[in-house]
């Protein structure tokens, strides 16, 4: 039920689902930060008295949902992790507002996050908050504009010395923090519920596996064509979204779309059968050995001194933790072209890059290694570590020399 609403800071209305009067006004916020809310703030969706400050009480969207995807076609994100869908403020009866402030429907989320120095947050989002079509930025813009602008405690008036767009960073940071505390893949695996092309599971078994970590409450399960593809974790909040306490809650309505039995949980990589999950991001599991000639689909693994150390991701940069991008190699002249979900790949200003505006380079293979201009040597300013991305340059003009090899998938 999308609707436009006035500034939630000044909202005065009767909450949907009960006679609970929510009045704007009141508190002075100190210190140039979000409101410091009292420890005994009322729990959203549970108040029985008038709430005089919507900077410390989420309304009318009093139930917050941290929603997660499991995308397999196309496979999105690490093979051993769910990905982020969003953080949604529902009314306490399952309805919701959407797109509440068109003046804050920003279209430069990456730039906003970077401007506040949150590069670690952005890097994490680039791995775990993925759009299945590869349009991450557009996806983030949608989630902020549709849902973030409807969270009352993120209203700019809830900040002293408000810096434009700082509430955007708070929205994405809180969503990521919640997601990190909800490792769905690990929780399901611990109960023997693992991706498989043949096994099926029951709704009760899935709910039981997740309830071991959130006793007393259930979640919303989403299925498509009989396969599990979404989990929604519900919370009521004591205080603000920025600094308050998220209390696990039952769903605010009947929303699950999975059958009671016969639920598929398909693997992202096309395999399956119940292997033990890894604990540090996605490790390529293709059946062809590194160095196989470049054709079809595969990963671009990076070797340092002959040992594999990470891989190339969709924009053309290198890191060592997380999911490796799938590239498509196709014959082109006497060599081949490469494309990723970002677009064509080429050498731009000396650096490997993939994107919609990149002119494709005709690469070749030299001793099973990726070569540009007949040279299979590449280099970077430093050896990649964790999720810190390093630009990879053609030739040996930078501090660390590497080679790039193919692994078919």
Short description:
The chain has 409 residues and is α+β, with helices and mostly antiparallel strands.
Can you characterise this structure?
InterPro entries: Ribonuclease_T2_eukaryotic (IPR033697), RNase_T2-like (IPR001568), RNase_T2-like_sf (IPR036430), RNase_T2_His_AS_1 (IPR018188), RNase_T2_His_AS_2 (IPR033130), RNaseT2L_C (IPR057328). The protein contains six helices and 21 strands. The chain has 409 residues and is α+β, with helices and mostly antiparallel strands. It has two domains: 257 residues, Ribonuclease Rh, Chain A, CATH 3.90.730; 113 residues. The strands form five sheets. Strands 10, 11, 12, 13, 14, 15, 16, 19, 20 and 21 form a ten-stranded antiparallel β-sheet that branches. Strands 3, 4, 6, 7 and 8 form a five-stranded antiparallel β-sheet that branches. Strands 1-2 form a two-stranded antiparallel sheet. The longest helix is centred in the middle third of the chain and has 15 residues. The N terminus is likely disordered.
